[in-house]
């Protein structure tokens, strides 16, 4: 079965972490644009168009991270793309992001978050559907409010 959204943009500061996330998501059937830094993300968005989800490393320089988030939220074609922040600080809150995935995370948590937010986008476009993520579990901060509303156990 194909993932609910075909592509994920992963923006990470560390090459080894970037490659690990990319390999895991590609193994699960996602198309992945994997880039280092905000500049790479902006270039990738021009090439790939609208991703189904953005996974954004919180350790990027604050100005770069803020510029990228602002671009996504102001661009009409990208405005509703979910952004999940990858962070060692489980208590960080940014109004522009849908969830925080606390580092380090295991593959089950990564897959749960990606499926939750990609499926949420698909439901908006296509109507409700039951997903495997509704049966997954993980700490509350790693899924966020949309996951809780959709029935993800925390």
UniProtKB/TrEMBL annotation:
Alphabetical GO biological process terms: phosphorelay signal transduction system
4-aspartylphosphate sites (modified residues): 57
SUPFAM superfamilies (alphabetical): CheY-like
SMART domains: REC
Disordered, as annotated region: 122-154
Phosphoprotein listed as a keyword: yes
Cross-referenced InterPro entries: Bact_response_regulator (IPR050595), CheY-like_superfamily (IPR011006), Sig_transdc_resp-reg_receiver (IPR001789)
Gene3D superfamilies named among the record's database cross-references: 3.40.50.2300
Keywords: Phosphoprotein
Domain Response regulatory: 7-118
Name the UniProt record assigns to this protein: Response regulatory domain-containing protein
